[in-house]
Write a structure and sequence with these properties.
Structural class: mainly alpha
Order of helices and strands: EEEEEHHHHHHHHH
Radius of gyration: 23 Å
Distance between the termini: 26 Å
Number of domains: 2
Strand content: 5-15%
Strand order of the largest sheet: 1-2-5
Largest sheet: 3 strands, antiparallel
Number of strands: 5
Helix content: 40-55%
Amino acid sequence: MKGSVVEIICPACNAVYRVPDKKIPKYRTVKATCKKCGRKITVHTPGYKTVIPKPVSGASPQAPSPITVEGMPDSSMDGIQSEPTVSAGFSYGNAVRFAWSAVKRDPVLAIVGMLIVPVCIQMVFEIFNGPVPEELWSVSLVLGLVATGLELIVTLGIAGICLKFCDGRPAGFKDLHAYRSLTLKYFLSSLLFAVICFIGFLLLIVPGIILSLWLQFYVFVIVDEKAGPVEALKKSYAVATGNLGRIFGLWCLLVLINIIGMIPCGLGLLITVPITFIAWGYLYRSLQGRVPQMI
């Protein structure tokens, strides 16, 4: 709450509403409906208190349970203007500086976890699959499925590490496999993403580029909210809507940074690739209105 204004953020699409507190009765829990996605939002208004009933004499103690008093019925937030979800503190420079600071803070996790481990998975697959005769295509298929599964798990882990960096939470190598239960969701989301973007590219290329920029945050959504394939793509679109220029601008900057990283025999990619991942996580959080603090 800021002064006489209450900030309400929709948990589904991250739309931000600034509501004069006089519109919301005190000491109550108010329910409203987001104009952008239709999600029901519960708001604990100023003065809201949790009431714990006193135990009856002789009765066994019970865990305290809050009493929620419902306020006015669902309203549509008519007249409330949604604000841009990207904080005014975001800039391309801040995104890159934040990512560079995170790499410097934990270079082993950033370089090994975000680049060397995925490369090693592919190299091991090539080493084992190389000598396999063509007639044993089933063996190659099994090896390919194993390698793909490991790559999916590690990619989810990298997304999780990026979000932990952005949230100021500790991250470690165990996070590379911490989200393995979401592998199927990620695989199906990736297939759906590929199909949608392919259709877009068939429509004179530009629509495919726009769709890929809108939907590319789905892996962060899956890790962040355990969302299913369709929901992840929808939420990525909801987060990115209205910020296409900002997303494209950061994409161009990161492409340039990685081109520069390739110049010294590709050694610079050891730094620029982790910076790219973390910068995208920074942008995702920023699009949610949660710009991370500089480390």
